[in-house]
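just leaving the lab so this will be short. below you get a single protein, a line of residues and a line of whole numbers that encode the local backbone shape. id like you to explain what the token line says about the fold, in plain words if possible. thanks a lot i owe you, the record is right below:

…
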Amino acid sequence: RTTLRQCFAILNECDIVFSPDTGAIPVCGSLGKQTLVLYSTVPKSTRIKYYPTVKGIQSEVPCSPCYKLHNCEYNARCMNTITSYIVFSELKKMIEKGG
């Protein structure tokens, strides 16, 4: 277990951060860290528009974004269609760019 202060200090030491949409993302953006984020029910543009170092991945399925956090009638298609290939491709681009 870490405190918030310890968590932020750890994030500050990272070159690249990969995470689902959490409270740590604005911290990474504020620290200027290259960050790759998985988004599902909330439009990524609303979360990352103020952080130029944060890139979002979001499925382009008809039901997304829906803003529903629970009781998805499509079995979380918005998250299940984000493949490891997509994630690794984006991370590779970030690393090649200089992370």
